[in-house]
């Protein structure tokens, strides 16, 4: 049965919640009551579900006992946890590729134990020291994949396919997060990565905001939507104001609620639905009271954008996971 606005699974990103505890230690070794407190805050903001963002807590590095405690914490707080976003653990990192690949496999195992549906991976790497000094880290260029190196790209395809195969054995989806200057850094390159991996449970996390916020020329947003939405199986949504002075070479962006930024989520959702998208959505926002803005974004999606009834067209569904089969790029 297709989702409607009321029952569409929308998770809260945990970007605003720190990994470190105020009195020392981290969420990794915290008493489960700390987890419950965070989940209750998210629930009180209006969310029924959370994305277990691993910048807050790394499920892949928890023991089986601690994973059971984490599951119990979500139940006590009254939230679901259908997704994990594993961030900045590139499987082609020049120094940590093997370690990151092993961590990614552990994250899949943790997701299965927790009853998740999808794990989002990417090829972006840790923020540089210079990026960490900025108010908005994306105003300074970070790591860049060797985009002309076919051997490295083949390694990325192979290792991400390995994760996809493991996920399939566990009954999970893998979603690949788009991010600038990586092999998932443009609409076309991201789609070709999914095509080359060629597994029905591996799709795109078309995080449009990651590309729109750059302080430099970007690809056409409408074309980006057209290219990527047919491959979406999970979706981080956020938006940005954007100003361009092309003649002067000046570009500026800052976070904005979904309905006021330069990305039309009315358009993006319409295209996604036309291609059968039935994936979980994750509401994100950087800066300030990001949880409240994310809650506003959820309300906007449910009241204005997502279908109010089941009477809307879906694309041709995949046999596995109910996802659609996209048309390959020409």
How are the elements arranged and paired?
Blueprint: E1 10-12, H1 32-44, E2 49-51, H2 64-77, E3 80-85, H3 97-114, E4 118-121, H4 129-132, H5 150-170, E5 173-177, H6 187-197, E6 202-205, H7 208-212, H8 221-228, E7 234-237, E8 239-245, E9 250-256, H9 265-274, E10 280-283, H10 290-305
Helix pairs in contact: 1-2, 3-5, 5-6, 6-8
Question: What would your notes on this structure say?
Answer:
This protein has 330 residues and is α/β, with parallel strands linked by helices. The chain has a single domain (10-238, 265-305), classed as TIM Barrel (Alpha-Beta Barrel). The protein is 36% helix and 14% strand. It contains ten helices and ten strands. The protein has an eight-stranded parallel β-sheet. A two-stranded antiparallel ribbon has the order 8-9. Helix 6 (187-197) links the parallel strand 5 and strand 6. Helix 1 runs parallel beside helix 2 (64-77), helix 3 (97-114) runs parallel beside helix 5 and helix 5 (150-170) crosses helix 6. The longest helix has 21 residues, at 150-170. 44% of the residues are buried.
The tally of structural domains comes to 1
The best one-word shape is globular
> What can be said about the biggest beta sheet?
8 strands, parallel
Strand content range: 5-15%
Please sum up the structure shown:
Helices cover 36% and strands 14% of the residues. By secondary structure, the chain is of the alpha/beta class.
Keywords:
alpha/beta, TIM Barrel, 10 helices, globular, disordered C terminus
